Amino acid sequence: MKKTLMKGNHAAGEAAVRAGCMLYAGYPITPSTEIMEHLSARMPEEGRVFIQAENEIASIHMVGGAYCTGKRAMTATSAGGFSLMQEFTAYASDAELPFVIINVVRSGRGIGSLEPGQDGYRQSVYGGGNGDYRNIVYVPNTIQEMVDDIYEAFDTAEKYRIGVIILTESSMGQMMEPVIMPDYKFMEGQPEWAVTGTHKWDRGSDGLGLKRKAWAEKMERMTAEMQRWEDSGLEDAEYVFVAYGLPSRSTGEAVKALRAKGEKVGFIRPQIVSPFPAKAFEKVNRDVKGFICVETTEFGQMVQDLAITVKKEFDRNVPVNFYPYGIGVPSVKEVLANYEAVKAGGYKEVF
C-alpha cells in the first residue's frame, strides 16, 4: 500500500474519516486546530456533518447527541478545552454512551504553553469531572500508530459503551511522517442502545446495585481484553524503563544503546494506559533492581500507576524511580545520563 507523508493532525482527521466518523464538532485550540481544519473540508466532501461549535462544552455535547442516535462522532481538543468537556464525559460514563476524543496535549498548568508534554494523563485515565469512572486511553508514539488507534477507537467505544481518548502530544500533531491510510469502514447496523440511550438493566428493587455490578463486570472484561504494550529485555533486566508517547522513542533508543554496552536493562512501552498494561510486568526478571519512569510532567502522573502495578506484582519492595523531564521530549543522551544517576544512587526512589 502507498505511503503518504502527512502532518500528524491532518493524519488524525483523515483516520477518523476512514473509520466512519459521521459528525465532527469542535472548537479551535492550539495545537489540535489542524484536525478541525482538515475535517472542515473532508466531512462535507464525504456528505457528512462538520460543526464549529461556540465552545468545547457545546462541541462534546453535540458528539454525545450524535452518538445517542447511533452515529459515529468525534471531537479534538487540548489543555483547558479538554477540562471543559469533562462534565459531559462524566455524564456519558453513567449513561454508557460512547464518545471519541483526540486530546493533543500541551504542557503546563492553566492555559499552559505550546510545548509538548504529557500533562493530560491523569484527567484522561481517571475520567475527570465528578464521578468514579474510567476511559480507555490510547497513547501512540508514531503518526502511523495514531492513525491505527483512531481507526480502531470507534469500534472500541461502541463495544464497551465507554469513552475513548487518543492521547497525543503537540509535537506529534505538528510533525510529519509517512503513513498508510486504512480503507473506509462504517458502523454496521443500528446499535441496540441508539435513539433513547437508556440503560438495559432490570433495575428491580436494587437498580443502583445492579448498575454498579454491571459496570464492575464491564471494567473487569475491558481490563483483561485491552492490555496492550511493547517490551524488550525484561527476562534478565536489572533496571526497566517505562515510557509512553514521544518520550518512549528516545527512551527506547537509550535502552538499545545500553544493551549494546552490555547493560542489563529492559523496556516497557504502554500502547494503552487505561487499562494499564499490568500483564507486561509478569515477564520482568524477579531479581530486578528497580524501574525508571520517564515522562514529560513536572510532578509525575503515570509513575503512580507504575508504582501501584509494581507493588502488586512483586512480593518485595522494588524501587520505582522517576525522571520528571517536564516540558518537551528528552533526548537519548539525557535518558542515558538519568540512568547513570539512578545507578549511582543520585536519585531517591519515589515509591
What does this structure look like?
The longest helix has 19 residues, at 207-225. Helices cover 40% and strands 19% of the residues. The chain has helices at residues 8-18, 33-45, 56-68, 80-84, 86-95, 121-125, 143-160, 170-174, 207-225, 245-260, 302-313, 332-343; strands at residues 4-7, 23-26, 49-52, 73-77, 99-105, 136-138, 163-169, 176-179, 229-232, 239-242, 265-270, 272-274, 290-295, 320-324. The protein has 351 residues and is of the alpha/beta class. It folds into two domains: 4-225, Rossmann fold, CATH 3.40.50; 229-343, Rossmann fold (3-Layer(aba) Sandwich). It has a seven-stranded mixed beta sheet, with helices on both faces. A five-stranded mixed beta sheet has the order 9-11-10-13-14, sandwiched between helices. A two-stranded antiparallel sheet has the order 1-8.
Largest sheet: 7 strands, mixed
Total number of strands: 14
CATH topology category name of the largest domain: Rossmann fold
Percentage of residues in helical conformation: 25-40%
Query: Beta-strand percentage?
Result: 15-25%
Number of H- or I-type helical stretches = 12
Number of domains: 2
